[in-house]
């Protein structure tokens, strides 16, 4: 068993050392221009929020990578602010060494919901399944600039039950992100 672990560790080290120039870790932070959409959303003012976190880029071939991320992100509207831990897992395609497109699913874990100073977390689902799509321009020194759009795939509002009748609410997060990143 020890020999097997030793061989696996050596093999993993060789693979990592041969592709270390392509694979990497980094940090990302930026502006969220957030709003809410859906059938049960009236005319609302958007929210200027932020996101911050880290990512890993795992190359699969010359022009394709998988990029999982872990981000703290604020979303919602002017009156209703959500805080999420977002976990996007993005497919990344490189058109050139510096220009890439990203797309993939994102899971958001609700940390808090504030409705004009009142805790509203119980009225919203603990998880937001979303889809993200965007693009990125990376400089050779590791700095990158990105734009991304993320939209909930289903409602983030809990269904409301009263007197044996269930009412469903259609409220979705809609976020444009503008970000700076740095890959180590």
Notes on the protein architecture:
- Helices cover 9% and strands 62% of the residues.
- The protein has 1 helix and 11 strands.
- Strands 1-2-3-4-5-7-8-11 form an 8-stranded antiparallel β-barrel. Strands 9-10 form a two-stranded antiparallel sheet.
- Strand 7 (127-138) and strand 8 (143-152) form a beta hairpin.
- The longest helix has 17 residues, at 2-18.
- The two termini are 34 Å apart.
Give a brief outline of the structure.
It is built from 1 helix and 11 strands; from the N terminus they run αβββββββββββ. The protein is elongated and about 60 Å long.
Q: Tags for this entry?
A:
mainly beta; single chain; 1 helix; 184 residues
What value does the Rg take, in angstroms? 20 Å
Summed up, the helix count is 1
Helix/strand class: mainly beta
Helix content: under 10%
Shape: elongated
Distance between the termini: 34 Å
| Biggest beta-sheet profile | 8 strands, antiparallel, barrel
- Describe the strand arrangement of the main beta sheet, using strand numbers: 1-2-3-4-5-7-8-11
Number of strands: 11
Mean pLDDT: 87
Low-confidence stretches: 4-21
Order of helices and strands: HEEEEEEEEEEE
> DSSP strand (E) fraction?
over 45%
Set out the fold topology:
Elements lengths: L1 H17 L5 E14 L9 E13 L4 E13 L3 E15 L4 E17 L2 E2 L7 E12 L4 E10 L7 E3 L2 E3 L4 E12 L1
Antiparallel strand pairs: 1-2, 1-11, 2-3, 3-4, 4-5, 5-6, 5-7, 7-8, 8-11, 9-10
């Amino acid at each position: 068993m020890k020999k097997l672990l030793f061989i696996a560790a050596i093999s993993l080290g060789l693979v990592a050392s041969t592709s270390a120039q392509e694979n990497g870790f980094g940090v990302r932070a930026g502006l969220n221009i957030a709003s809410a959409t859906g059938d049960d959303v009236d005319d609302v003012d958007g929210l200027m929020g932020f996101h911050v976190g880290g990512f890993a880029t795992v190359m699969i071939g010359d022009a394709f990578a998988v990029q999982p991320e872990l981000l703290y992100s604020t979303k919602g509207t002017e009156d209703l602010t959500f805080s999420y831990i977002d976990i996007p897992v993005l497919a990344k395609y490189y058109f050139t060494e510096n220009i890439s497109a990203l797309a993939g699913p994102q899971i958001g874990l609700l940390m808090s919901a504030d409705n004009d100073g009142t805790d509203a977390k119980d009225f919203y689902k603990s998880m937001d399944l979303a889809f993200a799509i965007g693009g990125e321009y990376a400089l050779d020194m590791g700095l990158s600039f990105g734009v991304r759009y993320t939209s909930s795939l289903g409602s983030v509002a809990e269904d409301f039950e009263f007197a044996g009748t269930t009412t469903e609410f259609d409220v979705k997060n809609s976020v444009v992100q503008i970000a700076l990143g740095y890959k180590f």
